[in-house]
Amino acid sequence: MLVKYKKSCEKIAMGLLGLMPNEQKVKKLQALIRLYEEKPERQLYLWKEEDDYVGLIGVEVEEAYFVIRHIAVNPSHQGEGLGHVMTEQVQQCMQPREMLMTPEAEERMLTAC
């Protein structure tokens, strides 16, 4: 189930963002979380299965489109198609906007989600 990020999930979100190769330093993760908290056009979602958060997707929303900037899935759940499920769920939420993806997020989708 896709759940909008809340401050109470900050450490979970940082842990999931830290799975991305270019986002592993604590200060960078903290700055990234602040960016999602402070900028209304940036939205962060967590994927919850039963009682566990196992995935994350971060988007930047514009008027006609949205860009997937970050996507991560807990290693124990990789290979289950959660990356695709999260993108489909976000795409439904963002309609009628067109979906775009950064090259980094696209590579992550293909290799680790």
From TrEMBL:
Source organism, top-level taxon: Bacteria
CDD domains according to UniProt: NAT_SF
Residues forming coiled coils: none
GO MF annotations in UniProt: acyltransferase activity, transferring groups other than amino-acyl groups
All copies of domain N-acetyltransferase, residue ranges: 33-92
Entries under InterPro entries matching the protein: Acyl_CoA_acyltransferase, GNAT_dom
Alphabetical keyword list: Acyltransferase, Transferase
Protein name: GNAT family N-acetyltransferase
